Amino acid sequence: MAAGHACVFILTALGSLPPKATRIFLSPFLFLYPRLRPAHCARLSARFAASPFRGDLEPARYYAMRLRLLLSGLCAHVRRTAADGAATVADLEPEGWETYLAALASDRPIALIGLHAGPWEELHRVPPAREGRPFLILTAPAFSPPLTAFMAKGRESGGKSIIWIGSDGKRGLAAGIRAVQSGRGILALMADQHPDPGEEEWLSLWDRIRIPYPARLLRSLAAHDFLFMPVSIRISAEGTPLYRFHSPWDSRDIAGESADIGSMALAAKVRDFLETAIAVAPDQWNWSYPKIRPALS
């Protein structure tokens, strides 16, 4: 508990400063980190070498970008915790906004599917919640209740609520799916996040990199007539967040002659989305996730 309170204090302090000043303050740790965690850096280098982007990726630049993105998200998180501010559609001028509006007009439940790339905290903040239609964000609790509460407070704004991976009851995934389905709402989740640790399924990106993905959850949403809306965000060289709604996938079209065919079709959609979104800015994807591995390892 004490560690959680300490983390919240430190994160709040860092998030209250201008991101550029905080990056300068923390930059010495970018030099020390590879020396303090050589095994982690070796695994990261192996993932880079196995990827199609090995000429564009190297640990030092990647860690600098990760710090920049994390601080950007943290600053936005702290500001919203304090004042409930939020980026808006007008702020970011997202590509494909009309596509998203058309999905809402379908009057079906929507699975808003993102990935851990760019300033990903904005992924679930930009699309506004619609009156009378629930907007639920699937996320994992932190290691400590104070830190979990801090995460929730910064994300639950504008009529949006969190449901927790691994929880039951009103805050659990099953109840959340029922609420979104009956209310024709939105369930925001990550394609590179796995909510069922005991039932992992793997996806191969570019036939080079293996990642776990929420196959069982996505199949369940397809069975409940969800419309899938992929969404990605990256930060430009000038520091501007660039938000994109990709073409939706209709669960009614994904169904094949058998459950196996439908599952393979859904996996292909997820793979295409992840490969497309990552390739635009490969240094902004979270290659540090421990379960990412070269396909041949």
Task: Write a structural description.
This protein is α/β, with parallel strands linked by helices and 297 residues long. It has a domain of 204 residues. The protein is built from eleven helices and ten strands. Strands 1, 2, 3, 4, 7, 8 and 9 form a seven-stranded mixed sheet that branches. The protein has a three-stranded antiparallel sheet with strand order 5-6-10. The protein is globular, with a radius of gyration of 19 Å. The two termini are 38 Å apart.
Topology:
Layout: H1 2-16, H2 19-36, H3 38-50, H4 59-83, H5 89-92, H6 97-105, E1 110-114, E2 135-139, H7 145-155, E3 160-164, H8 173-183, E4 186-190, E5 201-205, E6 209-213, H9 215-223, E7 227-235, E8 241-245, E9 249-250, H10 251-254, H11 259-280, E10 293-294
Parallel strand pairs: 1-4, 1-7, 2-3, 2-4
Antiparallel strand pairs: 5-6, 6-10, 7-8, 7-9
Helix pairs in contact: 1-4, 1-7, 2-4, 4-7
Question: Which segments are poorly predicted (pLDDT under 50) over 5 or more consecutive residues?
Answer: none
Query: What is the succession of H and E elements?
Result: HHHHHHEEHEHEEEHEEEHHE
Count every beta strand, where a strand is a DSSP E run of 2 or more residues: 10
State the shape. globular
Instruction: Report strand %.
Output: 15-25%
Total of DSSP H or I helical runs spanning 4+ residues: 11
Q: What is the percent of helical residues?
A: 40-55%
> Which structural class do you get from the secondary structure elements?
alpha/beta
Main beta sheet: strand number and arrangement?
7 strands, mixed
Q: What's the gyration radius in Å?
A: 19 Å
Quaternary structure annotation:
single chain
Report mean pLDDT, rounded to a whole number.
83
